Amino acid sequence: MSRISQTFARLNGAKALIPYITAGDPDPDTTLRLMHALADAGADIIELGVPFSDPMADGPVIQRAAERALAQGVSLHTVLDIVRRFRASNADTPVVLMGYLNPVHKTGYAAFAEAAAAAGVDGVLTVDSPIETVAPLHDALRRHGLDTIFLVAPTTGEERIARIAELAGGFVYYVSLKGVTGSAALDTDEVAAKLALLRRHISLPIGVGFGISDAASAKKIAAAADAVIVGSRIVKEIEANPGREAQAVGALVRELKTAIEAV
């Protein structure tokens, strides 16, 4: 059983909190401290963004984070090194890499999967890999015991959802809004209706992300989802608190976790 599956089994129906940060923002050492702060504050799984020069699915907050990381010279190799260092003292909290296909493709799927597994990564989500062409990456990841995490959008049809259900591992990430990260406001009734449809096809836990910005919205989503994914709000906190990023993010994550546990 993968570390992600073990985490959901341990939760036994309680809702998971999955915070996102961009690796290397504002620098690799701070990212390592942030990962430990997230775990200590109650994060069940950590999503670690791989910075990319053309982050088309991301809004301005995460775009700026990627720019700050790239300015530090952060690469896919750097990201894996951060995970390796995290694993030196945390063997339990799953880490999912989230990013774009280009850096993975350049590395080579087999080489990437081997290096990611060796570093202690648990799952990989490439936001621009369509289901029709993901098989080579999926197969390479599976050979090394890594879960392939898929996005499902409000517009995803049932046939595609069924195909995703065949290949997905760990959990499925439901994008609750059309648009880029950090945009608009949530319609929780609409999200709940879509999750009911998804569960006809998908037996894995379903996490919901995009548009969750505070304890109140996290609590509403937790009532319907298996996991609550929070990205832009956390990255904003990092940006707004230079020099005390870990303390600020830890406080926010504790607040979110408390709200989710109340469901």
Automatic annotation (TrEMBL):
The active site is at E47 (proton acceptor), D58 (proton acceptor). Its EC number is 4.2.1.20. One of its GO terms (cellular component) is cytosol. PROSITE patterns: TRP_SYNTHASE_ALPHA (PS00167). Pfam families: Trp_syntA. Keywords: Amino-acid biosynthesis, Aromatic amino acid biosynthesis, Lyase, Tryptophan biosynthesis. Pathway: Amino-acid biosynthesis; L-tryptophan biosynthesis; L-tryptophan from chorismate: step 5/5. Coiled coil: none annotated. One of its GO terms (molecular function) is tryptophan synthase activity. InterPro entries: Aldolase_TIM (IPR013785), RibuloseP-bd_barrel (IPR011060), Trp_synthase_alpha_AS (IPR018204), Trp_synthase_suA (IPR002028). It catalyses: (1S,2R)-1-C-(indol-3-yl)glycerol 3-phosphate + L-serine = D-glyceraldehyde 3-phosphate + L-tryptophan + H2O. HAMAP family: Trp_synth_alpha. Tetramer of two alpha and two beta chains. Belongs to the TrpA family. The alpha subunit is responsible for the aldol cleavage of indoleglycerol phosphate to indole and glyceraldehyde 3-phosphate. This is Tryptophan synthase alpha chain. The gene is trpA.
